[in-house]
Design a protein that fits this description.
There is one protein chain. The protein is α/β, with parallel strands linked by helices and 261 residues long. The protein has helices at 9-18, 20-33, 50-59, 72-78, 119-129, 148-157, 174-184, 203-213, 224-241, and strands spanning 40-44, 64-69, 86-90, 104-110, 130-141, 186-200, 247-260. It has a domain at 9-143 and 169-199 and 251-260: Rossmann fold. It is built from 9 helices and 7 strands. It has a 7-stranded mixed beta sheet, sandwiched between helices. Helix 2 (20-33) packs parallel to helix 3 (50-59) and helix 8 crosses helix 9 (224-241). The mean pLDDT is 94.
């Protein structure tokens, strides 16, 4: 089960520094949404706010971006961003009641949907908050094609299932996304998988990114005694894969856009 209480100031600050991979594919998601100046957007699971600030620059002073995240420490960092058209607050995808019906042109979930247990409720809330014809965008780890790190973790721990080891407990595949969209009142405009390659200089860098992006939940389902052993085994496996130029790990990210009917 995902915990929202394991984040620390150090993890939140680290994520703001090491979150380039997710920020980069977030910009691709925003591109698919075709945002224009003057539009109103909602960033659900904004983290430390880098993508929200990027979107605020796109919609300009005549537009506005609201950004929410359930992690107060990351919201505190996001609130330091100086944008007059960016409003950041603590909030969850499953409850968008603070926003009036039909108040947004676009809502997006970048690298967050796989953390949401009640995805149907989240999308129903999203549909209510969107105007008819508004767009929703989702990016996240592909269920069909596990990230390299997930496979490495499973190998290091000697388990056959990735379920207990991944940092993405609620991954969905392209078909499941299509069904979720349609049941929530969206027409599917686009769904595709993109592959990204991330270069890390050391196993410490890999594990630091995993810990920060999972806000304390990486390997968090393991008992305390097993956690340290698992971390040591994973470090050995990553060190074996590394070389003079570090190591390259692939991520397979599903992108999907729906239009509110």
């Amino acid at each position: 089960m995902v915990s929202l209480t394991l984040d620390t100031p150090a993890l939140a600050a680290a994520y703001d520094l090491v979150g380039d991979p997710q920020f980069s594919h977030g910009k691709l998601l925003v591109e698919e949404l075709a945002l224009t100046p003057g539009e109103r957007a909602l960033d659900v699971g904004c983290g430390t706010g880098r993508l929200a600030a990027y979107v605020a620059d796109i919609v300009g002073r005549d537009g506005i971006v609201y950004a929410i995240d359930p992690l107060p420490l990351r919201v505190e960092i996001a609130q330091r961003i100086e944008r007059s058209n960016l409003k950041v607050a603590v909030g969850r995808a499953e409850d968008l009641s603070r926003f009036t019906t039909g108040s947004f042109d676009a809502v997006y979930f970048n690298s967050v949907f796989h953390w949401i247990s009640d995805q149907k409720l989240a999308l129903r809330e999203c549909r209510r908050a969107l105007r008819t014809g508004g767009r929703v965008g989702i990016s996240g780890p592909s269920k069909e094609h596990p990230h390299d790190i997930d496979v490495i973790v499973a190998q290091a721990l000697g388990v056959s299932s990735l379920t207990a080891t991944t940092r993405a407990p609620h991954k969905i595949d392209e078909q499941e996304l299509t069904e979720l969209f349609e049941s929530a009142g969206f027409s599917v405009a686009m769904t595709k998988i993109r592959t990204f390659e991330d270069v890390f200089q050391s196993s410490r860098d890999v594990l630091g990114f995993q810990a920060a992006s999972a806000f304390g939940n990486f390997l968090g389902d393991l008992p305390n005694g097993e956690h340290d052993m698992a971390l040591a085994a994973l470090t050995r496996e990553l060190d074996r894969l590394g070389g003079p130029d570090g190591m390259t790990l692939q991520r397979h990210v599903v992108f999907s856009v729906g239009v509110a009917r």
